[in-house]
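Field: COMPLEX_INPUT
Field: COMPONENT_COUNT = two
Field: RESIDUE_TOTAL = 652
Field: MODE = joint
Values follow.
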Amino acid sequence: MGKPILEVNNLRVSFKMYAGEVQAVRGVSFTINKGEVLAIVGESGCGKSVTAQTIMRLIPSPPSYIKEGSSILFDGKHEISKMSERQMEQVRGAEMGMIFQDPMTSLNPTMTVGAQISEGIRKHQKLSKDAALKRAAELLTLVGMSNADERIHQYPHELSGGMRQRVMIALSLACNPKLLIADEPTTALDVTIQAQIIDLLRDIQQKTDTSIILITHDLGVVAEMAHKIIVMYAGKVVERGTLNDIFYNPRHPYTWGLLRSVPRLDSDRNNDLDSIPGTPPDLYAPPVGCAFAARCPYAMQICKEVDPEHFEVSADHSSACWLLHPDAPKVDMPVGVGRGSHG
Amino acid sequence: MLKYVLRRFVYMLITLWVIITATFFLMKLLPGNPFGEVAAKLPPENLKLLKAQYGLDKPEWQQYLQYLGNVLQGDLGVSYQFPTRSVVSVIKQSFPASLELGIESLIIAIIIGLALGIIAALKHGKWQDNTAMFIALVGIAVPSFVIAPLFSLYIGNKWGILPPGLWEGPEHRILPAVALAFGTIAILARMMRASMLEVASLDYIKTAKSKGLSTSKVVTGHMFRNAILPVVTILGPIAVGVITGTLVIEKVFVIPGLGYQFVSSITTLDYTMITGLTIFYAAILIVVMFLTDIAYGFIDPRIRMSGRR
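Field: COMPLEX_OUTPUT
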């Protein structure tokens, strides 16, 4: 693994709403190196998409704003949080690409696929219209679409969901970005298509050595691709580690819950699926202590009063849970976790 | 695309036929006599002659077929009120002024209305938005029979900047066209603003931004074309309303247009004139809707393609 491509430090993002301030992201830090795939997992509303879109500054401001003390250092030289809109235009598309969740709505219905892909190429690489279209056709071939020369003249509604997501991937790769952010790239697709898209992403990642931030709540997808994982809950990172750390030696009760809630083929069909009881906290007024305490079966008094710092398990692996404190009672991992369980 | 256009064209003809038929029989259902009070004073044999002259002695289905045949040949009949003038000649004489005024005012309205709407949407919630929407509110709230006389009185008469009325040189066009455009500007600005705001929140705008496009490129390349669709839909009927002449503006600025003819034909119960003008209006509306449909097909590939099936 090479040098760091993106260093996010104590990122805090809030939305100023009529009813008050929503603290969507509350101090997230992570690093991703060149050629690495980092997965951000967590349930809906935990701040993973906001984190990702903030890295590209795609969330309109107002109402969102990046709070003081946050730092997003890209490629060792660009401080994203301080850049002007004009400077961002040079970074977006050229050095960072983004793949969105729903390919049905993320392509412009009134523009041909080729025009949409070549737009970014023409802006960043100053190519002529024809040369850019040719490059667009090459990209479509790269993402596994046949008849690319005809495809570039088609409109999104003439393509299936999987095809559109391929177009989206081609579009995000158009200028060979150093970092690709994939925001739930498979969530809106059929299971069989999901596998194809993940294979494609992994293939491209290995060929081009692009760093990828993969945002998902699908642990199967994570297991297929990720090198490192951060688990987010209520706008914070609750556990970070390598793929093996998180799947075989998870330390945070929330991670346990996530892993247990994956349906398994060998489980008894008459039993209910495991789920984490309760709902995430209200981010208008986040709790003082650990945000997960209210839903945590192992919560102690201190969990409700003081928010835990990260405890190191190993060099790459840490978890923000009081159970890891030397004085805490020893709790064993529940059954069904830690065997690399994924669907 | 050709198939789509052809299909629209056939629909257009059917609609026109339905309107001719409906108008014709509705006129027959009207109580009263096409010859007004004169009929009561005429001897019965004279009245019979008069009816024969207009073909009113035949059964109604025959009259209908004959009328339909005449309309197909472009003959809308002779005015009952002025037997020397055919309906077609009245249209030929009055329509050009209404059409010209309408088109001029439409161009003004589209340019200003869309610009206001786009500015308001891009500066959503800021003072530019509030100003644009205030102008739109005034445009809707103040009717043309207030704006037109004020224009004529102040700009035309008191300050003498532009002629207060009549229909001669280009300088005579400005005041009525602007006065007529006011309401349309308001409608278009509001529609465009709402439509732009809706499009701005869609995913593909984020995609466009993620490519590194500048805001102006995103607006012109991605938002405008998608946002204009609903506006084009209402533009058709609005255009017809503006083109076919408005009584108020024509009266205030003394313009020899069709709006005036239509109203006077109703007050004088000139049946052929009412039927003829109704069919003419309907025909224009249908043609404009036809053009709107085609424009739609050009803007939105999804509509173009569905016509192919």
